[in-house]
Design a protein that fits this description.
This protein has 116 residues and is an alpha+beta fold. Helices cover 52% and strands 16% of the residues. The chain has a three-stranded antiparallel β-sheet with strand order 1-5-4.
Length: 116
């Protein structure tokens, strides 16, 4: 079985993080993993927001998050268990990631209130 690639913290870049977070679905996935007390599997995100996503699309989103260094994936049987790398990244990037997640959250609230 092919090993799962995780970049070293020193190899993680701001550009990579911003690219990973350029898609609102990936931000929602990351935020869902971050809020969870335990590792999350891909199928927990078959519905993100009001959209249903195929597993192949989800796999691609998880790959982008992992290769950007935002999540750590561990294979357990046939499932991939995902956790954030918050503590590792906080040392290098401070509050940047938290600020991005919070900004998306605020943006989402404004968009919902406009629709009402």
């Amino acid at each position: 079985m092919k090993p799962i690639y995780h970049p070293a913290v020193s190899d993680i870049t701001v550009e990579g993080i911003l690219y990973a977070f350029s898609d609102p679905v990936r931000v929602q996935i990351y935020a869902g993993i971050e809020r969870s007390e335990c590792p999350q599997i891909c199928s927990n995100f078959l519905k993100v927001g009001n959209r249903e996503l195929p597993k192949s699309t989800l796999s691609q989103h998880f790959k982008v998050l992992r290769e950007a260094g935002l999540i750590r994936t561990e294979r357990k049987g046939v499932e991939m268990h995902n956790t954030t790398r918050c503590e590792e990244l906080k040392e290098r990037f401070g509050g940047m990631i938290r600020a991005i997640i919070d900004a998306y959250g605020e943006q989402g609230k404004k968009q919902k209130s406009k629709r009402r």
